[in-house]
TrEMBL record:
It holds the Pfam family Esterase. InterPro entries: AB_hydrolase_fold (IPR029058), Esterase-like (IPR000801), Mycobacterial_A85_antigen (IPR050583). This is Enterochelin esterase. Gene3D superfamilies: alpha/beta hydrolase (3.40.50.1820). SUPFAM superfamilies: alpha/beta-Hydrolases.
């Protein structure tokens, strides 16, 4: 991926105010596609761990290549920053800041972005993306706001028992579509909550969601719990939800 066209990316920094988050603001980075035009309208991908998705996942560079060379419809990406020291508190279902973060996302972030950028407002045109606990909070956002979010990219989701319990209590999920992958070498990954078998966790969550009629595109691949693995899967994940022109 050395073509200089892929590296000519438009990325805008934004700060959104929040009455839900204790800090009162949250930083974003917004990728605008080649040929961006405010009179058009675009699908949108919201990434948890925004800085990591851009720096380690190289999602903006991948998007440029897929739009320029592969005929993927142009789309906007919003990377939502996170303070790593508060990440588990915000992303984990039982975290002390989880409810505030979910409310911020659904009630403040979405109106901010949709008020400033020409993004489509149908749930079918919004995609949530996350790695590990970022995938987890993306699922909980969809369960909380099903009219807003119905499509999720889940990269090695950290589906702890609290998340499985919440998903098990959900009703019919035939409206939900997930691209869900995990690495086969993630069977003993050390987290801040202990050592977990991510393959087993993802299999369990897949079973729960499938039993509730969610549409799951599931894959287990050679890979570890690292961005080197997830970056390889981003093109396929994007193609799952964004149409080719």
């Amino acid at each position: 991926m050395t073509d200089s066209r892929y590296l000519k990316r438009i990325i805008v920094k934004e700060t959104v105010s929040s009455s839900h988050l204790p800090e009162g603001t949250r930083d974003l980075r917004v990728y605008l596609p080649p040929g961006y035009n405010e009179v058009l309208s675009y699908p949108i991908v919201y990434c948890q761990d925004g800085e990591d998705f851009f720096n380690f996942g190289r999602i903006a560079t991948i998007a440029n290549k897929m739009i320029l060379d592969d005929g993927l419809e142009p789309f906007i990406i919003v990377g939502v920053e996170v303070d790593k020291s508060k990440r588990t508190a915000e992303y984990a279902a039982d975290g002390e800041r989880h409810a505030a973060y979910v409310a911020f996302f659904g009630e403040e972030l979405i109106p901010f972005v949709e008020g400033k950028y020409p993004v489509r407002r149908e749930a079918s045109q919004r995609i949530l993306a996350g790695d590990s606990l970022g995938a987890t909070v993306s699922l909980h956002l969809a369960l909380t706001y099903p009219k807003l979010f119905q499509q999720i990219i889940s990269l090695s989701g950290a589906y702890y028992p609290s998340s499985c319990s919440i998903a098990s209590e959900a009703g019919d999920l035939s409206w939900l579509t997930m691209y869900m992958i995990v690495g086969l070498q993630e069977t003993a990954y050390e987290t801040d909550r202990g050592v977990y078998d991510f393959v087993a966790m993802n299999r369990e969550m897949k079973q729960i969601l499938t039993s509730k009629n969610a549409s799951i595109r599931y894959g287990e691949h050679d890979g570890q719990h690292v961005w080197g693995f997830w970056q390889r899967m981003i093109p396929e994940a994007l193609q799952t939800f964004i149409a080719s022109e």
